[in-house]
Specification:
Order of helices and strands: HHHHEEHHHHHHHHHEEHHH
CATH topology: Amino acid/polyamine transporter I
CATH superfamily: Amino acid/polyamine transporter I
Structural class: mainly alpha
Strand order of the largest sheet: 1-2
Helix content: 55-70%
Number of strands: 4
Number of domains: 1
Number of helices: 16
Radius of gyration: 24 Å
Largest sheet: 2 strands, antiparallel
Length: 488
């Protein structure tokens, strides 16, 4: 990219007298201080991005998570993760610019922020965790979207043939179809051009969340009482009871599922990079974080608790696809359709930063490679011409294909959700934001503030390790009975 001052000098050399001042003003109106076209994001567009990223498929497993923990520990864990996510995200917003959070140099990605504050070694570690997490999230979203599409097909089958019918449906065609849609949307060049997709996805997430809430309330009213217990799923030998070992693993896995529901910090810097200035980006982003976390926490707590109250210890792993709700079947179908539309957008919100990272890295490594840099213009009747880059087309298609293939091989919704949440929560949501904050604000060791931040980091590490073990145990258990490509 041409240096900003070179552009200004070029324009000034073509202007005389007062026209030079006008030219400089026009340029500064069109470009930001680091060269790219001026950012236009605001409080509401960024909030849409956050809500799209946060209110996702994780909300569908919250009733099951609370069932594993019970009426006291379940809601308490939701509030704990909300507090930690908000607190660490506020610290992270100050790392967008460095060394000064208001006037410093922009860090356009999470990895750039880590490099500026913690050095290249930690940047490499951050990049490995972030890229693998984004890839794994894409796998999880593919599984969830196909599960919802299958649920629509089975719901119509149950409506026609009765709820005791087998109605076997394969997830595989729906995963492949979702992957094909993502190949198309993945060709959108950059994150700044999908704001409309985030708004649509945010509306969809609110829609299916509200429907799930309404169905849960309706089921409670139908039964006339609240289900659930203080300790959650019981330990014993009865039909719906489990062993002590399984109880522990499920409780740990529930922590991972809740952590996954709050995993938006990994793209917080990328969202912040869409904001216009003034006002300072960190001030706007702190408001965005408050709106996003408070809104989603209210949804999570309400839906998780209502779902648990409706089904008790038999709460399904996925609230909308576990067929605790059979009627009105059309409303359940609509909710699952909203899930699919939402995940189309959420997939892009999470993957566009990864695409940008890969493409920027290859461009810098091979600056003269025509395959990487050559764009081709395609003219479409009744539509403006579109630009296609060969490397972007191949790389993004291969990426989507690999996530679809892994989803086909490991279609375990709760296990995958819990494992992703456990994997990303501690490093990306807690450790890096706190470590960068300590370095940027020169927090002295052994002070009260330093001790508090270290305590929070340690507690969250233990939570992530526990959640990861529980999810791995779940995957191992499911693999014992799993037949690849078998119909649901």
């Amino acid at each position: 990219m041409v240096n900003q001052m070179d552009k200004v000098d070029h324009k000034l050399s073509q202007a005389e007298g007062g026209s030079a001042g006008r030219c400089t003003s026009t340029y500064l109106d069109e470009y930001d201080d680091d060269g790219p076209p001026q950012r236009t994001g605001n409080l509401w567009t960024a909030s849409a991005h956050v809500i799209t990223a946060v209110i996702g498929s994780g909300i569908l497993s919250l009733a099951w998570s609370i069932a594993q923990l019970g009426w006291i520990a379940g809601p308490s864990c939701l509030i704990f993760f909300a507090f930690v996510t908000y607190y660490a995200s506020v610290l992270l917003t100050d790392c967008y610019r460095s060394p000064d959070p208001v006037y410093g140099k922009r860090n356009r990605t999470y990895m750039e922020a880590v490099r500026a504050n913690l050095g290249p070694v930690q940047q490499w570690l951050c990049g490995f965790v972030q890229c693998s997490m984004l890839w794994a999230t894409a796998v999880g979203y593919t599984i969830t979207a196909s599960t919802s599409m299958v649920a629509i097909k089975r719901s119509n089958c149950f409506h026609s043939h009765g709820k005791h019918s087998a109605c076997h449906v394969s997830n595989n065609p729906y995963m492949i179809g979702f992957g094909a849609i993502q190949i198309v949307f993945s060709q959108i060049p950059d994150f700044h051009r999908i704001w409309w997709l985030s708004i649509v996805a945010a509306v969809m997430s609110f829609s299916y969340s509200c429907i799930g809430l309404g169905l849960g309330i309706g089921k409670i009213m139908e039964s006339g009482h609240l289900h659930g217990t203080i300790g959650g799923v019981s330990v014993g030998n009865a039909v719906h009871e489990i062993s002590k070992e399984t109880k522990v693993w499920h409780a740990f896995q529930a922590l991972g599922s809740i952590a996954f529901a709050y995993s938006f910090s990994v793209i917080l810097i990328e969202i912040q990079d869409t904001l216009k200035n003034p006002p300072p980006e960190n001030k706007t982003m702190k408001k965005v974080t408050l709106i996003g976390v408070s809104t989603t926490t209210a949804f999570y707590t309400t839906i998780g608790c209502v779902g648990y109250a409706a089904f008790g210890n038999n709460a399904p792993g996925n609230l909308l696809t576990g067929f605790g709700f059979y009627n009105p079947y059309w409303l359940v179908d609509f909710a699952n359709a909203c899930v699919v539309v939402h995940l189309v957008g959420a997939y892009q919100v999470f993957c566009q930063p990864l695409f940008a990272f890969i493409e920027n890295g290859t461009s810098k490594s091979w600056p003269d490679n025509r395959f990487i840099h050559k764009d081709y213009v395609i003219y479409i009747p009744f539509h403006r011409p579109i630009s296609v880059n060969s490397f972007r087309l191949v790389m993004r298609t291969v990426f989507v294909a690999t996530t679809t293939l892994v989803a086909l091989l490991l279609p375990f919704f709760n296990d995958i959700v819990g494992l992703i949440g456990a994997y990303v929560f501690w490093p990306m949501t807690v450790y890096f934001p706190i470590a960068m904050y300590i370095n940027q604000h020169k927090v002295k060791p052994w002070t009260m503030r330093w001790a508090w931040l270290q305590f929070l980091t340690t507690i969250c590490l233990l939570v992530s390790l526990s959640a990861g073990l529980g999810s791995i145990a779940g995957i191992v258990r499911d693999l014992k009975h799993y037949v690849p490509f078998k119909s649901a």
